[in-house]
Amino acid sequence: MGILDFGYAYILRPMAAIAFSFYKVEVIGKENVLRDKGFILAVNHSSYFDGPFIAWVLFPRPVHWIVHKKIYEKWYFRPACIMSRSVPVNGSINIAEKILNQGKIIGIFPQGGICCGDEIIKKGHRGVAVLGCKTGIPIVPCYIEGTFDRTKKVSIAPKVFMPLELRFGKPLYFEKCLTEKVPDDVLEDTLAKIVDGINGLHGKG
Predict the structure, then answer these.
(1) Which residues pair with 199 in a beta bridge?
(2) 114 lies in some domain
(3) What is the span of the domain harbouring residue 122?
(4) What is the pLDDT at residue 121?
(5) Which CDD domains match (predicted)?
């Protein structure tokens, strides 16, 4: 077992297990999670709790989160980013492609940053659509509800004993683009379907 595997299994995992024991957790649609292949997990984002929550639910399969390089390089985020196998990006998807082709999971928040509240995604960034079109690898939409703390301006974690729900939708499949640049209309259509897939899980608990 490597250092990263040890940190993930024996440091992050136990910490998450303790943290989530203070909440009423419900997972819906876990049968939609592809067990034998890599996939892209597209999720709404309303709290710093979101990534650890999903990683805890999907353990022992690690989720390699797409993180902007500026965030990855901040000293107070870096240890957690390294142990959680986050992928620093700054426009390039090459590393993410390699991870997906190894049958692993890439997690991405199409909103980019944290959005206030358990609400639908109004606008998504193209990165998730580019990744889906360039690889042809299925995208599993996911919606988290309950991690946002409405009493705080920036939600780090929800109040204890609150219900948390994680809903997985059916995988979305897109044709792999063989050209070097994905046409804009294809990207927009793909992104719209991904966002609709996530938003369609809102309020379905």
Answers:
(1) none
(2) yes
(3) 29-199
(4) 79
(5) LPLAT_AGPAT-like
Number of domains in the chain: 1
Residues 6+ apart with CB under 8 A from 146: 23, 118, 158, 162, 163, 164, 165
205 inside domain? no
Residue 67 phi/psi, 5-degree rounding, is -130, 135
User: Residue 64: exposed, middle, or buried by beta-carbon count in 10 A (0-12, 13-18, 19+)?
Assistant: buried
**Residue 2 in domain:** no
pLDDT, one tens digit per residue, over 18-53 is 777 777 889 999 999 998 899 999 999 888 888 888
Q: What's 167's domain CATH number?
A: 3.40.1130.10
Q: What is the end-to-end Cα distance of the chain in Å, rounded?
A: 38
Give mean pLDDT, residues 193-204.
90
